[in-house]
Amino acid sequence: MDRRPILFIDSGIGGIPYCSNFRERNPAETVVYLADHLHFPYGKRSREELTAILGALLESLTGEYDPKISVMVCNTASVSALAELRERFPSLPFVGTVPAIKPAVEGSARRVVGVLGTERTIDDPYIAALAGRYGSDCSIVKIAAPELVDFVENRIADAGAEEKRQVVSPFLERFREAGVDALVLGCTHFLFLLEEFRREAGPGMKVYDSVEGITKRVESLLDKNDAALRAPERKSAEGVFLVSCGETGAAGERWRNFAAVLGLPFSVFRIVHE
Ligand code: DGL
Known about the structure:
This protein is α/β, with parallel strands linked by helices. The protein has two domains: 6-97 and 212-268, Rossmann fold; 101-209, Rossmann fold. Helix content is 47%, strand content 16%. The chain has eleven helices and ten strands. The chain has helices at residues 16-25, 47-65, 75-88, 101-107, 119-123, 125-134, 146-155, 161-177, 194-201, 211-227, 249-261, and strands spanning 6-10, 31-35, 69-72, 94-96, 112-117, 139-144, 182-185, 206-208, 239-243, 266-268. A six-stranded parallel β-sheet has the order 4-3-1-2-9-10, with helices on both faces. A four-stranded parallel β-sheet has the order 6-5-7-8, with helices on both faces. Helix 1 links the parallel strand 1 and strand 2. Helix 4 packs parallel to helix 6. It is globular and about 50 Å long. The two termini are 33 Å apart. The mean pLDDT is 94. The structure holds D-glutamic acid.
């Protein structure tokens, strides 16, 4: 039995649907969610910058919370920095989020798979390697959508149904024109628009995400060695939703509301080790 928390890290709110799925199935586990809005958006940063930022964050977070597992609920952070972070923090098990290319390749009848992500993710050789490994007979159509990341991070709470439909539909049009019948949502922020993506994609294009896969991966780490890392049963677990920028007033209220989605209190996180 291990009462230590599980860390969930993203550049902002993108990891919330992932963390929420995990918590529903594992209510006894304590989670510490970090929205690193101070460095948002990750997609516009270089691999080197992201490795340095995430290294410093983890240095602080591990010192303060002593987590038992760290989940990068961010494709950009995972493809850019996970290998280095695993080396730098050898005793901390990591779970990374990468675009669900394998199931999409398996599900594509036309052999044309679409990947929607940040500029950083789309350009990373890791994506080409995944595509080569699982879908060498497929063409992969990659589109970067930084404006969609920004829309979700900064506007989703106030956006209406029609506005959400309008932001996803031009992307779906481009994928449709390219013949895509299997689309991978390769950025965790896009999960906030999953319903719109599914509805607008229609029956001719299936939409893939990694939410279930990540929950299962964390659960398998908890269950290893006779469930050594599992927390003891309890009615309500503790946890905290951290935001790395010190926004107050209306902006602070926004973060409080996001924290409430996960049923967690909100707190500002200041990086100690830079
Ligand atoms: N949520 C992140 C991802 O999955 C990145 C968003 C950003 O650019 O900060 O890639």
